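REQUEST
  id: r-88c1
  op: predict_structure
  target: Ketosteroid isomerase
  payload:
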Amino acid sequence: MNNTTILHTANAYVSKGDYESFLAYCTSDTKWVFVGERILNGKEEVRAYMKEFYIEPPVFDVELAIEDGDFVTVTGNIRLKNKTGKYEHFNYCDIWRFENGKIAELKAFVIEKKP
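RESPONSE
  id: r-88c1
  status: 200
  body:
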């Protein structure tokens, strides 16, 4: 299975709200960098982030996925429900790095869409 397929398979679990199955696709020391916002180190911090920000499963609209070696770059849109129950809309560009078929690192550029 190539890294793009692994990523899409893992993200299908996120879309269903099955975050533990998604985390099984991550290395234990996975690192997520949300540029200009925060850095998450390890599965526990990613798990806590998902619990806080994924009040309901996010809705992804993937526009493009490009694989090059251990990297998969994905662009698209994401909708997240906030604590008041309203959806917030974002554009994103994610650069995922894989090690031995697992997600080792994410560098995410996320920009809120303005109405």
